[in-house]
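# nightly structure sweep
# worker-07 picked up a monomer target from the shared queue
# config: single-sequence mode, recycle default, output format = structure tokens
# input follows
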Amino acid sequence: NNYAVIPEGMATEMGRLLLHEKRFDESSNLLNVNKHLSQTDVLFLRLSGTMLKGDFKSASLIYEENAGNNTRFVADYGNILELERGFRYKKPGISILMSAIIPGSGKVYSGFWKDGLISFIFVAASAYQSYRGFDKNGVKSAYGWIFGGLAAGFYIGNLYGSGKSANQHNSEFRHQIHHQVEEIFTAY
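# output follows
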């Protein structure tokens, strides 16, 4: 429990274990109280902790303060931070709005063009069938009401799916970044 007295090698491993178990506050406490850790180990554990937490803003500040450091992990984390900075996160609200105007376009915006095309076809085909039924038999057309209900269901599902597709696009990228961070963390 007393992190201040742990010797250097054990403190480094303790920090790694705490980060591995996602106990970020305890890891930070270890780094603050233990004076046996080398500057390189402190930098590694602090940068790794912020990266594993997904706090890229804090990680960027730590990286910028230590950009001149010739340690391999600093350069590797810098590459990941550059990737994250350049990534264009998709906004679920914009995706939903786009699909509200043109069904399926929000999914295309999120990078799922096949899903967007299928959504467009289903909504358009069922809406057209509803239109045909009402045009032919008027308001009392069961055919028109059935396909109108299907069209409304597909349209609402399209809106919901568009928001989910934007979140999925962002989640896949964050997962990829987290995997790269874990590779660097375990390799050091």
